[in-house]
Amino acid sequence: MPAAALFAADLVAIGVLTFALYFPRHRRRDLVVAFLGVNVGVLAVAGALSASTVGAGLGLGLFGVLSIIRLRSSEIDQREVAYYFAALALGLIGGLGSSLGVTALALMALILVALLVGDHPRLLSRYRQQVVVVDRAFGDHAALVAHLEQLLGGRVHSATVQRLDLVDDTTVVDVRYAERARPAAADPLAGVAVEHAELVRVAR
Q: What is the pLDDT of residues 169-195, one digit of tens each?
C-alpha cells in the first residue's frame, strides 16, 4: 500500500479517535493536543525510519523513553493512558505498515473499535472505583465494608485500607463497588389518571 494512503488513513483514524471518541466523552482539551501531537510526530518519524538505514528498533526505543517521560509529567487516568497508546500505535502503523497492505487499515480499525466498545458509557456503567476518607477508624474489615455499602449505596466488591489513623480517627480506603440498580421511574401520568377517575366517580 502506498505510504501516502497510509498517512491519510492515520490522519483520519486519529481524527476519529480524538474528536469522535475521546473528547465528546471526557472533554479534556490538553490531551487532545497531546494525542494529535504524539500521533503525527510518531507518524513522521516512523515514516522517516522506514525509508532510512536507521533501525526501526532504535526509533521504537526512543518513543518508549519519551512516552514514559510524558506519562510521568502529568496525572492521567488509565482510560486516557489507553487513548495515549492508541494514538501512538496508529502513528506507528501508519508510518511502518506499508508492507502490511490492507492489514494495516484493519489494525487501525481494530484499535478504534476496541476503544469505542471498551470506553462506552454503558459498558459496566454501575461499577465504580474511588478513594474514600471515612471519619472513623475501622479495625474490623467486615464493619468497614458494611459502613461503605451504606454510605455509597452499593455492593462493595473490594475495600483496601490505605491508611488507618487512630489519632485522627479516620480510615482511607480504596473502594471498588457496584451501584444498586435504580427502580424504574413511576409514570407521572398514572397519578393524574387516578385522580381524574376519582373526581369523575365523586361527581356522579
A: 999 999 999 988 766 554 455 444 444
Taking the C-alpha atoms of residue 163 and residue 181, their distance in angstroms, rounded to an integer, is 31
Q: Which long-range contacts (CB under 8 A, 24 or more apart) does 98-102 make?
A: 98/1, 98/2, 98/3, 98/6, 98/50, 100/1, 101/1, 102/1
Separation of alpha carbons 7 and 177, rounded Å: 43
DSSP string, 41-96: HHHHHHHHHHTSSS-HHHHHHHHHHHHHHHHHSS---HHHHHHHHHHHHHHHHHHH
The stretches of the chain forming alpha helices (DSSP H) are 3-15, 23-26, 29-50, 56-72, 78-96, 102-118, 141-152, 188-203
Cα–Cα dist 130/160, whole Å: 11
What pLDDT score was predicted for residue 131? 92
- Reported pTM: 0.73
Q: What would the pLDDT profile of 22-50 be if each residue is shown by its tens digit?
A: 999 999 998 999 899 989 988 988 888 77
* CA dihedral (52, 1, 15, 107) positive or negative: negative
Distance CA 61, CA 67 (A): 10
CB 127 within 8 A of CB 178: yes
